[in-house]
């Protein structure tokens, strides 16, 4: 019997030690022209396996054991690219599209993913792999950005971002380089007034299954960016697998996801990528299960179709769309009614759609052309009734509003590289905006046109010094006004690589941003005659100084100091309320506004990042900042989002168990200075039974510091034809009560503090095959 057992163990050992394999492949192209680079050398670590790209710039590593890898790509006359944190899983190929930069002199390795770096300062790349790995991101790139220095979430329930003390309204969303409307479900999530915001929401409509590498910029933007003062999140779509059909299914407390990708035919490199998602809360809502008395539902569909054209060109057709709703109905047991909202019936609906196409075409070895056309629209409605506690009937209409915000944007860009030391880029953005409201039967229908030409020259001054100068212009006009704003915006940046590991950067620029559409549409005294249509864009001057040091073991240190001077800021002309545009989010002040205010933000940021190598990673970020504004009377006050400091730690460790199991433990800790609020006039609020602030008050009330630890644990298991991932995310694992805002509750007849989310567990199961 003992001999038989030993024989079974011998034969069983190969099965237990079975290795699962897959493929890493991709293409290497010129970053400016998009032309393939044949003969490039690709080194796969840690296996130290090498490959040479073919005539189409393609490389391939087949039958590679699943696990973590790095690619080191080199080509004569180009910078070396180091692509880290690659995860190869069974059942899925890892396909990379890498673009190399020409270089007059090779100094050190540049960590890139797929695209040319677009800024010298204040830029972070967000990969899909990070979005899946970081704790409590809900697979949303905006929530990944809270790990970066100087970035804070405006509210736990939404993904609106406070960047360097600026209002979330100063952020801009882009898709494939083109400005779009707010791309989120439930754009009212976490707001004081329960009304939509222009940049935030509960869940990103674009599924992570379609995302490639997104770019997050926080200031001193290059010349190709306009109509923004605070920050940019530019989402890019990945290309579907053009050789093999693959599927992904995922179930979580967020929703059920189904994705498919693959080639249209074996004879073509054209490919498709499509994803559909339905909310898990929607399924529970259909069964009568509610969260905090709310029935929350959403679903979305997104796709990306890729068609190669002649001579290395590419045409893509893409789209995304989602519908969501939030229904609140009072409890039948009226004795449980505690707050004013408990006696209301509220229905909020949200629909967002965006679709477009891009066309890229190399025009020889030095010239390339790119065009993108995107249309996007956001519709939201809110209806609220007071419910009679005796007969449970809706007896008083409290709110009835519909909002439509649409954009159609065209972008054309021409890139010309005279030689490795000189590059020119020029282009034009044209955006038509349409804003329509129906609030209490008061209708507004406004259109505006924004035209933004730009030119930019990049050149190498010396072997170790490069610079970039550019000019952006924004011409804008709101319908039914005679005012045309024509604003020139010079930009400049310089980089000094003074040795192999250290570099200094400096950037400067002048910027402008249109007001949120609701401010232009404001009616004063319920008439169309008194309005704010003649408002000008808010402008800013920004300076950034940065230092970056490359360290051993795939780590780096970054330090940046910045200064922002905002002018032509909106301020209210009312004698009671003290409005400044830098403090507004979802609220619309019904009074005259003028571009006569100023504001100032300055600070210093530092971050240390170690990429995922040797089974662990970390990102430690911190900032100290000050954000102030000047009011109608010329007095300077602390701004609403002047938390004064941010700190975040994001890190994790992976553990291998045999060849088929991979465990990961990930932690994120956020410690932010508390935002500010106005003091509430309690007596006046008691009289009128609504929230009213003290006359001419400013944001003198500081809320408590914000502290939130998050945890993510995942288990990846590989099989021959598929891989599975089981994960649990615990947001605010300590259950800390963080203050959100204060308001006067007429049922309580007192000031109430509203807190942010407590412990939120999200369990997910992902299957890739």
UniProtKB/TrEMBL annotation:
What InterPro entries would the database entry show?
CarboxyPept-like_regulatory, Plug_dom_sf, TonB-dep_rcpt-like
Provide the GO MF annotations for this entry: siderophore uptake transmembrane transporter activity
Keyword Signal in annotation = yes
The UniProt keywords, alphabetically, are:
Signal
Q: Does the keyword Signal apply?
A: yes
Gene Ontology biological-process entries: siderophore transmembrane transport
- Signal peptide start-end: 1-17
Classification via Gene3D superfamilies? Carboxypeptidase-like, regulatory domain (2.60.40.1120), TonB-dependent receptor, plug domain (2.170.130.10)
Q: Which domain of life is it from?
A: Bacteria
Q: Which SUPFAM superfamilies match?
A: Carboxypeptidase regulatory domain-like, Porins
Among PANTHER family, the record links this protein to: HEMOGLOBIN AND HEMOGLOBIN-HAPTOGLOBIN-BINDING PROTEIN 1-RELATED, TONB-DEPENDENT OUTER MEMBRANE RECEPTOR
Q: What is this protein called?
A: CarboxypepD_reg-like domain-containing protein
């Amino acid at each position: 019997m003992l001999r038989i057992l030993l024989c079974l163990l011998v034969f069983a050992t190969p099965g237990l030690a079975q290795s699962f394999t897959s493929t890493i492949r991709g293409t290497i192209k010129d970053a400016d022209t998009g032309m393939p680079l044949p003969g490039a050398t690709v080194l796969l670590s840690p296996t130290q396996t090498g490959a040479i790209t073919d005539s189409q710039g393609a490389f391939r590593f087949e039958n590679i054991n699943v696990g973590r890898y790095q690619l080191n790509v080199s080509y004569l006359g180009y910078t070396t690219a180091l692509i880290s944190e690659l995860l190869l899983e069974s059942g899925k190929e890892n396909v990379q599209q890498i673009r190399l930069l020409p270089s007059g002199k090779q100094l050190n390795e540049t960590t890139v993913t797929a695209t040319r770096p677009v800024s010298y300062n204040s830029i972070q790349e967000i990969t899909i792999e990070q979005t899946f790995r970081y704790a409590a991101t809900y697979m949303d790139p905006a929530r990944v950005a809270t790990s970066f220095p100087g970035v804070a979430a405006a509210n736990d329930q939404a993904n609106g971002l406070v960047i360097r003390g600026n209002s979330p309204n100063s952020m801009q969303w882009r898709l494939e380089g083109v400005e779009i409307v707010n791309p989120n479900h439930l754009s009212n999530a976490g707001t004081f007034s329960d009304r939509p915001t222009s940049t935030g929401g509960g869940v990103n409509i674009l599924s992570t299954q379609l995302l490639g590498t997104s770019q997050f910029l926080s200031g001193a933007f290059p010349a190709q960016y306009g109509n923004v003062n605070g920050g940019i999140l530019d989402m890019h779509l990945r290309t579907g697998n053009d050789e093999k059909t693959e599927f992904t299914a995922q179930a979580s407390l967020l929703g059920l996801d189904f994705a498919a990708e693959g080639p249209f035919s074996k004879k073509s490199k054209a490919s498709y990528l499509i994803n559909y998602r339905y909310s898990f809360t929607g399924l529970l809502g259909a069964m009568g299960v509610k969260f905090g008395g709310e029935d929350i539902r959403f679903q979305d569909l997104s796709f990306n179709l890729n068609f190669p054209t002649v001579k290395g060109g590419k045409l893509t057709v893409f789209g995304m769309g989602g519908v969501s709703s939030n229904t609140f109905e009072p409890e039948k047991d009226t004795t449980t009614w505690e707050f004013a909202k408990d006696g209301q019936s509220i229905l909020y609906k949200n629909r967002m759609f965006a679709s477009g196409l891009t066309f890229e075409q190399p025009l020889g070895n030095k010239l390339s052309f790119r065009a993108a056309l995107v249309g996007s629209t956001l519709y939201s409605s809110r209806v609220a009734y007071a419910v009679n506690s005796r007969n449970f009937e809706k007896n008083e209409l409290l709110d009835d509003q519909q909002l439509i915000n649409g954009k159609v944007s065209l972008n054309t860009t021409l890139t010309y590289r005279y030689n490795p030391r000189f590059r020119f880029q020029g282009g034009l953005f044209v955006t038509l905006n349409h804003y329509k409201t129906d609030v209490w039967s008061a209708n507004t229908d406004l259109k505006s046109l924004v035209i933004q030409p730009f030119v930019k020259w990049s050149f190498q001054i010396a072997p170790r010094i490069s610079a970039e100068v550019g000019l952006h212009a924004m011409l804008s006009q709101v319908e039914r006004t005679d005012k045309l704003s024509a604003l020139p915006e010079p930009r400049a940046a310089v980089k000094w690589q003074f040795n192999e590991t250290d570099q200094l950067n400096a950037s400067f620029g002048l910027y402008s941003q249109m007001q949120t559409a609701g401010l232009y549409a404001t009616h004063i005294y319920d008439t169309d005659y008194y309005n704010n249509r003649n408002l000008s864009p808010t402008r800013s001057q920004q300076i950034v100084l940065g230092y970056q040091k490359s360290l051993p073991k795939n780590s780096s240190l970054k330090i940046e100091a910045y200064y922002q001077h905002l002018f032509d800021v909106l301020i209210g002309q009312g004698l009671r309320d003290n409005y400044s545009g830098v403090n507004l989010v979802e609220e619309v002040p019904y009074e005259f506004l003028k571009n006569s205010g100023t504001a100032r933000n300055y600070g210093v940021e530092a971050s240390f990042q170690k990429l995922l190598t040797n089974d662990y990673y970390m990102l430690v970020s911190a900032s100290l900042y000050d954000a102030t504004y000047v009011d109608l009377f010329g007095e300077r006050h602390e701004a609403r989002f002047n938390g004064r400091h941010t700190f975040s730690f994001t890190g994790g460790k992976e553990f291998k168990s045999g060849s088929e199991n991979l465990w990961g433990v990930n932690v994120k800790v956020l410690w932010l200075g508390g935002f500010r609020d106005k003091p509430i006039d309690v007596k006046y609020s008691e009289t009128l039974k609504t929230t009213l602030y003290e006359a001419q008050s400013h944001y003198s009330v500081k809320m408590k510091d914000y502290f939130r630890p998050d945890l993510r644990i995942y288990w990846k298991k590989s099989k021959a034809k598929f891989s599975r991932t089981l994960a649990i995310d615990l947001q605010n694992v300590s259950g800390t009560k963080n203050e959100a805002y204060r308001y006067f509750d007429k049922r309580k007849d007192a000031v109430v503090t509203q807190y942010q989310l407590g412990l939120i567990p999200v369990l997910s199961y992902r299957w890739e095959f």
